[in-house]
Specification:
Structural class: alpha/beta
Strand content: 15-25%
CATH class: Alpha Beta
CATH architecture: 2-Layer Sandwich
Number of strands: 11
Number of domains: 1
Shape: globular
Radius of gyration: 18 Å
Order of helices and strands: EHEEHEEEHEEEEHHHEHH
């Protein structure tokens, strides 16, 4: 079995979560660390923007009112409100077999473990077909429409993922909402008027779903994380080393640097 690293992380601020993902990506890319699966959560709740998403989509006053953070991801896509969820990130060397080919091809491979993880929890998920393309009027919310190979249940998105590729490694991360009202995200976004906001809220609720809604019961974060761990082991025949369970000192230092100079910096967050 191939040796990977598994990190269970405590809930953290959005700028720290993105900085850690990037630090791991760099370490895996220079072969200082093995392929790494990281499972984590967010505190406080945080709205993340896609790499190229306009900051004009954000209702900053509302964010402040709710006490929600704001961060810009290194990956593409649209806005996600991170709360009541399990987030995964997977960093692989660029020459790893799971990273081979196009982004969609690697999406498809990685999605097999996500599908199995949900099946172990009692879910019968599917993946969006490879020819899925967002409609022309796609709004600012990531969970409005499934992208190719993203995970759905009865046509509603359950796991949304995004990927970034560098010269030496790839990072794919995604979110599995466990519970709560997915329509809350529209309170952090700008709309022409309140009827448009409420219409968007209902659209998100109709097109996306939480794990609790699927199962009819609420599972704790640890139970879901364990199912995902088991699924990656079984799908990819990997062994998670018991001695590699946290960031190295170099990764931790690099994450602190990335947090202060990039992900917590307003110049990065508000750059578009």
């Amino acid at each position: 079995m191939r040796q990977w690293r598994l990190i269970y992380d405590l809930p953290a601020a959005g700028s720290w979560n993105m900085a850690v993902d990037e630090a791991i990506l760099e370490a895996v890319g220079r072969a200082a660390q093995p392929p790494t699966l990281r499972l984590y959560a967010w505190r406080p709740a945080c709205l993340s923007l896609g790499y190229g998403q306009p900051v004009a989509h954000i209702a900053h006053q509302n964010l402040a009112q709710f006490g929600w953070d704001l961060v810009r991801r290194p990956t593409g896509g649209r806005a996600i409100l991170h709360t009541d969820e399990l987030t995964y990130s997977l960093a692989l060397p660029i020459d790893h077999e799971l990273a081979a080919g196009s982004v969609l091809e690697s999406y498809h491979r990685i999605s097999q473990a996500l599908l199995l993880g949900l099946q172990l929890l009692g879910v019968q998920p599917t993946t969006a077909p490879p020819d899925t393309s967002p409609p022309a009027d796609t709004g600012p919310v990531c969970f409005e429409t499934p992208s190719p190979y993203e995970i759905t249940v009865a046509g509603r998105k359950l796991i949304g993922s995004a990927q970034v590729r560098r010269k030496t490694a790839i990072l794919q991360h995604g979110t599995l909402p466990l519970t709560g009202d997915l329509g809350r995200i529209v309170d952090a976004l700008t709309f022409a008027d309140e009827p448009q906001r409420e219409s968007a809220r209902q659209q998100v609720r109709q097109r996306a779903i939480t794990l609790q809604q699927v199962l009819g019961l609420e599972l704790d974060w640890s139970s879901v994380a364990e199912a995902m761990r088991a699924a990656f082991v079984r799908t990819f025949a990997v062994n998670f080393s018991p001695t590699l369970v946290s960031l190295s000192d170099l990764e931790h230092t690099r994450a602190r640097q990335l947090q202060s100079t990039l992900y917590a910096d307003s110049g990065w967050t508000n750059r578009r």
